[in-house]
Amino acid sequence: EYELIKEDDEKSLRKYRKQCMQEMHERLSFGPKFEGVYDLDSGEAFLEVIEKEHRLTVVVVHIFKDGVQGCEALNSCMNCLATEYPSVKFCRISAAATGAGERFSDDVLPALLVYKAGELLGNFLAVTQHFSEEFFATDVEAFLNEYGLLPEKECGPGADEDEADV
Question: Which residues form the Phosducin domain (predicted)?
């Protein structure tokens, strides 16, 4: 009987601790939250998103070209990652719309550029070379995490209690 009571107390304490951590995280979370991937239509929009975003916000920009292998798959991965990391601003822009289309030939696309506080943190050309032929959002996530470019994942209210304790 003592063991059952002790186990219930531990579960309640874990739940309370988790709730306190979540509330503290919400209070200490600075910067805006984003929904989805933002399409940039010009070089000016590209510069504006880099220079004017909140200083604590990580901005991931996918430069693509229709018809180039891997670009469409990377666009899908970005959509998934945008829901997993709402504090990161995910954007995409066509190479032609950047105003420097000649610099982005088909052999360097898709490209991922990562910025924070206006500083370039990561510049990955032909990024799909780092993945297998068929890749998913988890592969892109692992790649960005390998370079320390993504913040910690935010635990939503539906997170599994036992997983959150691990």
Answer: 1-154
